[in-house]
Structure formats: structure tokens, C-alpha cells
């Protein structure tokens, strides 16, 4: 099956040549699309395929990092040390780890609405703004 697909693509590109940059511009990397800002010291972990992420962003199921970071800044004291983007049954979730006064706070946000869905950790009230 894989060989057939590769042969099909080779034939397709032979008849319809397309530069690599034109292909990239037609369908950007979904991971780069949501990572519109970077925060020093934050580990980013996206297990989902970049095409799935791209489609989810286009469908409005995932907000970009800039909006997530703004929401975290509004809701919490502390520093983000890890961000994960997960999908389960077409529901996308951001899972964050924050450090505040030597405590790790785990926060889950709905990736489409950026509503908090879960908070775990010690001394959570001190971390809330």
C-alpha cells in the first residue's frame, strides 16, 4: 500500500511539478500554526500529527498559544514549564504545568474555548489571581 502511494505521488509530481515552498505555503505545519509565540523555559509537547492540528485550528477546535498564554497570565501567578496539546474523541485539551512558589500546578484548558476544565496541585489558591 505504501509503495503504491509513493508511486502515485511520484507520478503526480511528474505531471504536475510543484516546488517544495509552494506545497508548504499551501498547507502549513499545524504545530507552527498554533505556536505563534514562544515562552522561554516552557517545554512544548504535541503528540498529534501536524496535519490533524492544522485541521483542528482551521475548524476552530484549537486556539493558538498566544491566546492560551494570555489566559494563563490572566488566571494565574507563576511560570509555565510545560504545555501539552492532546486530542481525544475530537475534543482538544491543553494540559499545562505551572510552577508557583515551588509548587507544581496542573491546569487543563479546553483548547477551543480556553475554559479551565481541571486544576490540580498544592496551594492552588495562592496561584490564582
Automatic annotation (TrEMBL):
InterPro entries: PepSY. Keywords: Signal. It comes from the Bacteria. Gene3D superfamilies: 3.10.450.40. Pfam families: PepSY. Residues 66-119 form the PepSY domain. The keyword Ligase does not apply. Residues 1-24 form the signal peptide. This is PepSY domain-containing protein. It comes from Aliivibrio finisterrensis. The lineage of its organism: Bacteria, Pseudomonadati, Pseudomonadota, Gammaproteobacteria, Vibrionales.
Amino acid at each position: 500500500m505504501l509503495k503504491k502511494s509513493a508511486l502515485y505521488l511520484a507520478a503526480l509530481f511528474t505531471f504536475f511539478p510543484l516546488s517544495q515552498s509552494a506545497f508548504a505555503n499551501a498547507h502549513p505545519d499545524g504545530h507552527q500554526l498554533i505556536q505563534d509565540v514562544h515562552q522561554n523555559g516552557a517545554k512544548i509537547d504535541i503528540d498529534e500529527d501536524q496535519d490533524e492540528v492544522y485541521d483542528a485550528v482551521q475548524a476552530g477546535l484549537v486556539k493558538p498559544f498566544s491566546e492560551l498564554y494570555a489566559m494563563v497570565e490572566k488566571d494565574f501567578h507563576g511560570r509555565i514549564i510545560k504545555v501539552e496539546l492532546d486530542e481525544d474523541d475530537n475534543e482538544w485539551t491543553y494540559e499545562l504545568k505551572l510552577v508557583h512558589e515551588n509548587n507544581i500546578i496542573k491546569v487543563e484548558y479546553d483548547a477551543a474555548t480556553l475554559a479551565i476544565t481541571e486544576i490540580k496541585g498544592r496551594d492552588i489558591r495562592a496561584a490564582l489571581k
